């Protein structure tokens, strides 16, 4: 038997993906929908193409949602009633985990025995559900935390609300129960072991991907025209959920510093902020607008609602630089997507961003959140055409190292390994 046939044989036929607090059907870039939603839908589609069916369980948030929706061939989204048909905050969701778990178990009970071969839970709330389902179904649990409370709390924006202790406890339990823990970077692997006591042998680092068919370099002028921007403009962009952790305020302060240093720039500078309110930043668009006014740059800042499809591609292509000033970021898909469009990224040197951005090759990493440092880095890239052109080439090159196909292959390998370990039948490669 060849290695690839052996691999295929130990791959699951069907998996249950748990995504309690947010659905892969939602538009990312606002509320609870972000990189995790993109991760789940992109890898699910790729898994189904490789013969592993995926059923994603998410909480029903409206009575209009059908119980089951086909996201793509081989990928179902199951809406589980648990609590009111309306959005709940993450703080309220733990009270609905029992109802949600009951819905998941009931769905499985209606199928033939052994319907799901494996569970992959995303975020700690889903991990709690997966923990119980694992025991009931006798299948392995693979868990991805996406973010960790202890890491978030250590990098909190000034005045932001810390994650509660109940989340820390819940995360610790899931780390102890999961068969495999998937992380985005080696930094996160180390955090999981050091801060949560994870067994290093259970941790697998799998790089997230980017859709290189959708996000690719293309006409800058066309993208700018679509946004009503002039070809001569100097365009700085931010895309993502608007919340203190993402620090869009740092970009605004740096932009104000740039026009203070060079008042001439005011005629050409545009700052795009794409995304909607989220998490502890529910009042953020309003307070960001206020900040822009206080900084005297309200006329330079354009707020865009969460962008989908080609609109988001146009934002990335139109920008001279995409800024990712986050206080913490377990990876930063926006950084990768912008680079795939041939746009250099200036990012904070935190979390997974040093993996997502190759410092000096595809963008610039800034070791602080000081507006002066950010203004320096943004000016270095956006105002020096030769530097920008070199980084733009590097950006496409760097992004091409990532893909959802590669991510999915690594996840499927992790599933196969978890299955062999769980059932205690390390399949020998028969030659
Ligand atoms: N996004 C989007 N429209 C927007 C802003 C963001 O679709 O207007 C998407 C973006 O394409 C990316 C995701 O939201 O895939 C954000 O992921 P990231 O890892 O950058 O941040 P997270 O939301 O996971 O914290």
Please identify the top-level CATH class of the largest domain.
Alpha Beta
CATH architecture of the largest domain: 3-Layer(aba) Sandwich
Shape designation: globular
Question: What are the low-pLDDT stretches, counting only 5+ consecutive residues below 50?
Answer: 1-5
Strand order of the largest sheet: 3-4-2-1-5-6-7-8
Give the amount of beta strand, in percent: 15-25%
The CATH topology of the largest domain is given as Rossmann fold
For the secondary structure, the number of strands is: 14
**With helices defined by DSSP (H or I, 4 residues minimum), what is the helix count?**
16
Mean pLDDT: 95
Q: Any idea what the CATH superfamily of the largest domain is called?
A: Glycogen Phosphorylase B
Structural class: alpha/beta
Q: What profile does the largest beta sheet have?
A: 8 strands, mixed
| SSE series | HEHEEEHEHEHHEHEHEHEHEHEHEHEHHH
Radius of gyration: 22 Å
Domain module count: 2
End-to-end CA span: 5 Å
Catalytic activity: 1D-myo-inositol 3-phosphate + UDP-N-acetyl-alpha-D-glucosamine = 1D-myo-inositol 2-acetamido-2-deoxy-alpha-D-glucopyranoside 3-phosphate + UDP + H(+)
Pfam family, one: Glyco_trans_4_4
Family: Belongs to the glycosyltransferase group 1 family. MshA subfamily.
Keywords: Glycosyltransferase, Magnesium, Metal-binding, Transferase
């Amino acid at each position: 038997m060849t290695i690839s046939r052996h691999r295929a044989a130990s791959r699951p036929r069907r998996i249950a993906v748990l995504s309690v607090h947010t659905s892969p059907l939602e538009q990312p870039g606002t509320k609870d929908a972000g990189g995790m939603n993109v991760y789940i839908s992109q890898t699910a589609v790729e898994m189904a193409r490789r013969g592993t069916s995926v059923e994603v369980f998410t909480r029903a948030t409206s009575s209009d949602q059908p119980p089951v929706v086909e996201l793509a061939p081989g990928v179902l989204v199951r809406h589980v009633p648990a609590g009111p048909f309306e959005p709940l905050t993450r703080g309220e969701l733990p009270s609905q985990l029992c109802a949600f778990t009951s819905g998941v178990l009931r769905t499985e009970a209606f199928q033939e025995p052994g319907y799901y071969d494996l569970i992959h839970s995303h975020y700690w709330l889903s991990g709690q559900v997966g923990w119980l389902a694992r025991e009931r179904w006798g299948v392995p649990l693979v868990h991805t935390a996406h973010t960790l409370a202890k890491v978030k709390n250590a990098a909190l924006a000034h005045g932001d609300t810390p994650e509660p202790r109940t989340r820390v406890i819940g995360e610790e339990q899931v780390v102890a129960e999961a068969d495999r823990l998937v992380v985005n970077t080696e930094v996160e692997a180390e955090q999981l072991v050091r801060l949560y006591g994870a067994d290093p042998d259970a941790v697998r680092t799998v790089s997230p991907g980017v859709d290189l068919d959708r996000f690719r370099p293309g006409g800058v002028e066309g993208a700018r025209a679509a946004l009503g921007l002039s070809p001569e403009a100097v365009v700085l962009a931010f895309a993502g959920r608007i919340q203190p952790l993402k620090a869009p305020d740092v970009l605004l302060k740096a932009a104000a510093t740039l026009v203070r240093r060079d008042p001439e720039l005011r005629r050409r500078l545009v700052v795009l902020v794409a995304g909607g309110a989220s998490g502890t930043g529910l009042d953020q668009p309003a307070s960001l607008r206020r900040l822009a006014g206080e900084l005297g740059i309200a006329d330079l800042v354009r707020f865009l609602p969460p962008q989908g499809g080609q609109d988001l591609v146009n934002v990335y292509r139109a920008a001279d630089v995409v800024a990712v000033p986050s206080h913490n970021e377990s990876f930063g898909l926006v950084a990768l997507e912008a680079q795939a469009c041939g746009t250099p990224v200036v990012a904070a040197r935190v979390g997974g961003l040093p993996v997502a951005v190759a410092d000096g090759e595809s963008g610039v990493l800034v070791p602080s959140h000081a507006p002066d440092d950010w203004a320096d880095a943004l000016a270095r890239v956006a105002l020096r055409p030769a530097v920008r052109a070199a980084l733009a080439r590097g950006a496409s090159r760097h992004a091409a190292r990532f893909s959802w196909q590669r991510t999915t292959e690594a996840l499927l390998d992790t599933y196969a390994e978890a299955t062999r370990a769980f059932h205690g039948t390390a399949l020998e490669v028969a030659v």
